[in-house]
Design brief:
The chain has 265 residues and is of the alpha/beta class. It has 9 helices and 15 strands.
Length: 265
Protein backbone atom coordinates (compact mmCIF):
# COMPACT_ATOMS: atom_id res chain seq x y z
CA UNK A 1 0.00 0.00 0.00
CA UNK A 2 1.27 3.48 -0.82
CA UNK A 3 2.68 5.37 2.16
CA UNK A 4 -0.04 8.05 1.93
CA UNK A 5 -2.78 5.47 2.45
CA UNK A 6 -0.80 3.87 5.28
CA UNK A 7 -0.74 7.22 7.10
CA UNK A 8 -4.47 7.61 6.43
CA UNK A 9 -5.05 4.38 8.38
CA UNK A 10 -3.68 5.82 11.61
CA UNK A 11 -6.05 6.21 14.54
CA UNK A 12 -4.76 9.73 15.05
CA UNK A 13 -7.48 11.21 12.90
CA UNK A 14 -5.97 14.69 12.68
CA UNK A 15 -2.89 13.22 10.98
CA UNK A 16 -4.94 10.86 8.81
CA UNK A 17 -7.21 13.66 7.59
CA UNK A 18 -4.25 15.98 6.99
CA UNK A 19 -2.69 13.36 4.70
CA UNK A 20 -5.98 12.83 2.86
CA UNK A 21 -6.33 16.56 2.25
CA UNK A 22 -2.69 16.86 1.20
CA UNK A 23 -3.27 14.21 -1.47
CA UNK A 24 -6.32 16.14 -2.68
CA UNK A 25 -4.42 19.43 -2.66
CA UNK A 26 -1.53 17.98 -4.69
CA UNK A 27 -4.06 16.94 -7.34
CA UNK A 28 -5.40 20.48 -7.49
CA UNK A 29 -8.72 19.50 -5.94
CA UNK A 30 -10.95 21.85 -3.95
CA UNK A 31 -12.49 18.93 -2.07
CA UNK A 32 -11.81 18.77 1.66
CA UNK A 33 -12.20 15.93 4.16
CA UNK A 34 -13.02 16.34 7.86
CA UNK A 35 -13.59 14.07 10.87
CA UNK A 36 -16.82 14.61 12.77
CA UNK A 37 -16.13 13.77 16.41
CA UNK A 38 -19.82 13.78 17.33
CA UNK A 39 -20.86 11.31 14.64
CA UNK A 40 -17.57 9.36 14.65
CA UNK A 41 -17.57 9.65 10.87
CA UNK A 42 -15.49 11.25 8.15
CA UNK A 43 -17.05 13.63 5.66
CA UNK A 44 -16.07 15.22 2.38
CA UNK A 45 -17.21 18.68 1.31
CA UNK A 46 -17.77 19.25 -2.38
CA UNK A 47 -18.86 22.86 -2.87
CA UNK A 48 -21.94 23.15 -0.61
CA UNK A 49 -22.62 19.41 -0.35
CA UNK A 50 -21.31 17.29 2.55
CA UNK A 51 -21.18 13.50 2.33
CA UNK A 52 -20.39 11.19 5.28
CA UNK A 53 -18.47 7.90 5.33
CA UNK A 54 -16.90 5.56 7.84
CA UNK A 55 -13.54 4.50 6.40
CA UNK A 56 -11.09 7.19 5.34
CA UNK A 57 -9.11 5.17 2.79
CA UNK A 58 -12.24 3.89 1.09
CA UNK A 59 -13.89 7.30 1.17
CA UNK A 60 -10.86 9.00 -0.35
CA UNK A 61 -10.79 6.47 -3.17
CA UNK A 62 -14.53 6.81 -3.84
CA UNK A 63 -14.90 10.58 -3.71
CA UNK A 64 -11.53 12.03 -4.75
CA UNK A 65 -12.96 13.03 -8.14
CA UNK A 66 -16.02 14.64 -6.60
CA UNK A 67 -19.54 13.64 -5.58
CA UNK A 68 -20.99 14.33 -9.02
CA UNK A 69 -18.52 11.90 -10.57
CA UNK A 70 -19.34 9.29 -7.94
CA UNK A 71 -23.06 9.71 -8.70
CA UNK A 72 -22.42 9.28 -12.42
CA UNK A 73 -20.31 6.16 -11.83
CA UNK A 74 -22.98 4.51 -9.68
CA UNK A 75 -25.76 5.35 -12.14
CA UNK A 76 -23.72 4.01 -15.06
CA UNK A 77 -22.47 0.87 -13.33
CA UNK A 78 -26.01 -0.27 -12.49
CA UNK A 79 -27.25 0.62 -16.00
CA UNK A 80 -29.94 2.91 -14.63
CA UNK A 81 -30.19 5.00 -17.80
CA UNK A 82 -32.70 2.36 -18.93
CA UNK A 83 -35.15 3.37 -16.19
CA UNK A 84 -37.41 6.41 -16.30
CA UNK A 85 -37.86 7.49 -12.68
CA UNK A 86 -40.83 9.48 -11.39
CA UNK A 87 -41.29 11.29 -8.07
CA UNK A 88 -43.23 8.59 -6.23
CA UNK A 89 -41.22 5.62 -7.49
CA UNK A 90 -39.94 3.47 -4.62
CA UNK A 91 -36.32 2.34 -4.75
CA UNK A 92 -35.06 -0.35 -2.37
CA UNK A 93 -31.30 -0.19 -1.91
CA UNK A 94 -29.96 -3.45 -0.46
CA UNK A 95 -26.37 -3.09 0.65
CA UNK A 96 -26.62 0.69 0.73
CA UNK A 97 -23.13 1.12 2.24
CA UNK A 98 -22.82 4.94 2.53
CA UNK A 99 -26.01 5.62 0.58
CA UNK A 100 -24.11 6.55 -2.57
CA UNK A 101 -26.98 5.43 -4.77
CA UNK A 102 -28.90 8.43 -3.46
CA UNK A 103 -26.26 10.71 -5.02
CA UNK A 104 -27.60 9.63 -8.43
CA UNK A 105 -31.28 9.40 -7.43
CA UNK A 106 -31.63 12.76 -5.69
CA UNK A 107 -33.97 14.91 -7.76
CA UNK A 108 -35.35 11.89 -9.58
CA UNK A 109 -37.51 10.45 -6.78
CA UNK A 110 -38.91 11.75 -3.49
CA UNK A 111 -36.72 11.42 -0.40
CA UNK A 112 -39.32 9.27 1.33
CA UNK A 113 -39.32 6.83 -1.59
CA UNK A 114 -35.72 5.77 -0.94
CA UNK A 115 -35.63 2.65 1.29
CA UNK A 116 -32.29 1.22 2.41
CA UNK A 117 -31.06 -1.93 4.12
CA UNK A 118 -27.57 -1.78 5.61
CA UNK A 119 -26.54 -3.79 8.70
CA UNK A 120 -23.12 -2.13 9.06
CA UNK A 121 -23.06 0.35 11.95
CA UNK A 122 -20.94 3.13 10.42
CA UNK A 123 -22.39 2.54 6.97
CA UNK A 124 -25.97 2.74 8.22
CA UNK A 125 -25.24 5.92 10.19
CA UNK A 126 -23.64 7.47 7.09
CA UNK A 127 -26.64 6.59 4.92
CA UNK A 128 -29.04 8.24 7.35
CA UNK A 129 -27.01 11.45 7.23
CA UNK A 130 -26.46 11.36 3.47
CA UNK A 131 -30.10 10.69 2.57
CA UNK A 132 -32.19 12.45 5.22
CA UNK A 133 -35.87 11.79 4.82
CA UNK A 134 -35.33 8.31 3.46
CA UNK A 135 -36.49 5.11 5.16
CA UNK A 136 -33.35 3.50 6.54
CA UNK A 137 -33.23 0.02 8.08
CA UNK A 138 -30.17 -1.19 9.99
CA UNK A 139 -31.05 -4.73 8.99
CA UNK A 140 -29.66 -7.40 6.73
CA UNK A 141 -31.89 -8.74 3.98
CA UNK A 142 -31.89 -12.53 3.81
CA UNK A 143 -34.10 -15.55 3.18
CA UNK A 144 -34.82 -15.81 6.91
CA UNK A 145 -36.08 -13.56 9.69
CA UNK A 146 -33.91 -13.65 12.80
CA UNK A 147 -30.28 -13.14 13.81
CA UNK A 148 -27.19 -13.74 11.70
CA UNK A 149 -23.45 -13.24 11.99
CA UNK A 150 -22.22 -10.32 9.90
CA UNK A 151 -18.55 -10.33 8.88
CA UNK A 152 -17.13 -6.81 8.64
CA UNK A 153 -14.58 -5.58 6.08
CA UNK A 154 -15.35 -1.88 5.78
CA UNK A 155 -12.25 -0.70 3.90
CA UNK A 156 -12.94 -2.98 0.92
CA UNK A 157 -16.75 -2.79 1.30
CA UNK A 158 -16.76 -6.59 1.44
CA UNK A 159 -18.83 -7.05 4.62
CA UNK A 160 -21.15 -10.03 4.23
CA UNK A 161 -23.50 -12.48 5.92
CA UNK A 162 -21.31 -15.20 4.40
CA UNK A 163 -17.82 -15.51 5.90
CA UNK A 164 -15.37 -13.95 3.43
CA UNK A 165 -11.66 -14.57 3.04
CA UNK A 166 -10.79 -11.25 4.70
CA UNK A 167 -12.65 -9.52 7.54
CA UNK A 168 -11.68 -7.53 10.62
CA UNK A 169 -14.39 -8.71 13.02
CA UNK A 170 -17.96 -9.93 13.14
CA UNK A 171 -21.16 -8.77 14.82
CA UNK A 172 -24.62 -10.26 15.23
CA UNK A 173 -27.29 -8.47 13.22
CA UNK A 174 -31.02 -8.73 12.70
CA UNK A 175 -32.23 -9.99 9.34
CA UNK A 176 -35.55 -9.94 7.52
CA UNK A 177 -36.80 -10.88 4.08
CA UNK A 178 -37.94 -8.41 1.49
CA UNK A 179 -41.19 -10.36 1.24
CA UNK A 180 -41.85 -9.90 4.94
CA UNK A 181 -40.89 -6.22 4.87
CA UNK A 182 -43.04 -5.38 1.85
CA UNK A 183 -46.09 -7.14 3.28
CA UNK A 184 -45.63 -5.61 6.73
CA UNK A 185 -45.38 -2.10 5.28
CA UNK A 186 -48.14 -2.56 2.71
CA UNK A 187 -45.89 -1.62 -0.23
CA UNK A 188 -47.74 -2.03 -3.53
CA UNK A 189 -44.99 -1.43 -6.06
CA UNK A 190 -41.20 -1.12 -6.18
CA UNK A 191 -39.65 0.58 -9.19
CA UNK A 192 -36.10 -0.65 -8.53
CA UNK A 193 -34.61 -3.26 -6.21
CA UNK A 194 -30.82 -2.91 -6.14
CA UNK A 195 -29.03 -5.94 -4.69
CA UNK A 196 -25.37 -5.74 -3.69
CA UNK A 197 -24.51 -8.05 -0.82
CA UNK A 198 -20.94 -9.31 -1.33
CA UNK A 199 -21.95 -12.82 -2.35
CA UNK A 200 -25.22 -13.13 -0.42
CA UNK A 201 -27.40 -12.09 -3.39
CA UNK A 202 -29.01 -15.53 -4.02
CA UNK A 203 -30.41 -15.73 -0.48
CA UNK A 204 -31.75 -12.17 -0.68
CA UNK A 205 -33.57 -12.86 -3.95
CA UNK A 206 -34.99 -16.07 -2.48
CA UNK A 207 -36.33 -14.01 0.41
CA UNK A 208 -37.98 -11.66 -2.09
CA UNK A 209 -39.67 -14.37 -4.17
CA UNK A 210 -43.19 -13.78 -2.80
CA UNK A 211 -43.14 -10.11 -3.84
CA UNK A 212 -41.19 -10.26 -7.10
CA UNK A 213 -44.41 -9.57 -8.99
CA UNK A 214 -44.45 -6.10 -7.37
CA UNK A 215 -40.95 -5.19 -8.58
CA UNK A 216 -40.45 -3.44 -11.91
CA UNK A 217 -36.63 -3.62 -12.16
CA UNK A 218 -33.91 -5.55 -10.35
CA UNK A 219 -30.25 -4.50 -10.53
CA UNK A 220 -27.77 -7.09 -9.28
CA UNK A 221 -24.08 -7.23 -8.46
CA UNK A 222 -22.95 -10.79 -9.05
CA UNK A 223 -19.16 -10.48 -8.90
CA UNK A 224 -16.57 -12.83 -7.42
CA UNK A 225 -17.27 -12.09 -3.76
CA UNK A 226 -19.01 -15.10 -2.22
CA UNK A 227 -17.32 -16.74 0.72
CA UNK A 228 -13.72 -17.75 1.27
CA UNK A 229 -13.31 -18.90 -2.34
CA UNK A 230 -14.61 -15.63 -3.80
CA UNK A 231 -17.17 -17.41 -5.97
CA UNK A 232 -19.35 -15.46 -8.38
CA UNK A 233 -23.11 -15.21 -7.93
CA UNK A 234 -23.91 -13.73 -11.33
CA UNK A 235 -25.01 -16.99 -12.95
CA UNK A 236 -27.19 -18.08 -10.04
CA UNK A 237 -28.92 -14.72 -9.63
CA UNK A 238 -29.47 -14.36 -13.38
CA UNK A 239 -31.00 -17.82 -13.66
CA UNK A 240 -33.25 -17.13 -10.67
CA UNK A 241 -34.62 -13.94 -12.19
CA UNK A 242 -35.06 -15.48 -15.64
CA UNK A 243 -37.09 -18.31 -14.09
CA UNK A 244 -39.26 -15.78 -12.29
CA UNK A 245 -40.54 -13.79 -15.27
CA UNK A 246 -37.71 -11.27 -15.61
CA UNK A 247 -35.60 -10.60 -18.66
CA UNK A 248 -32.20 -8.97 -18.89
CA UNK A 249 -32.17 -5.36 -20.07
CA UNK A 250 -28.42 -4.82 -20.10
CA UNK A 251 -25.19 -6.10 -18.61
CA UNK A 252 -22.07 -4.45 -17.22
CA UNK A 253 -19.30 -6.97 -17.85
CA UNK A 254 -16.64 -4.91 -16.06
CA UNK A 255 -18.47 -5.05 -12.72
CA UNK A 256 -20.50 -8.26 -13.25
CA UNK A 257 -23.68 -6.24 -12.86
CA UNK A 258 -26.94 -6.52 -14.76
CA UNK A 259 -30.35 -4.88 -14.93
CA UNK A 260 -33.53 -6.95 -15.29
CA UNK A 261 -37.09 -5.92 -16.06
CA UNK A 262 -40.23 -7.72 -14.95
CA UNK A 263 -42.11 -8.90 -18.04
CA UNK A 264 -45.41 -8.26 -16.21
CA UNK A 265 -44.85 -4.49 -16.49
Amino acid sequence: MKIGYKIMQTRTYSIAVAMANLKLLLKGSNLRISYNQKEKLFSIKDKEKVHFFGNLVRGHRLYQRGLKKRAEDIFKSYLLKHIHFEDNDIVVDCGANYGDLWLSLEGKINKTSYITFEPGILESKSTKLNAPGGVHNQLGLSNTVGNSRFYVNEEDADSSLIEPFNFTHYVDVLTTTLSNYVKSNNIKNIKLFKVEAEGFEPEILEGAKEVLHLINYVAIDGGYERGKNNDQTFSKTCNFLLRNNFEMVSINFKWSRALFVNKRF
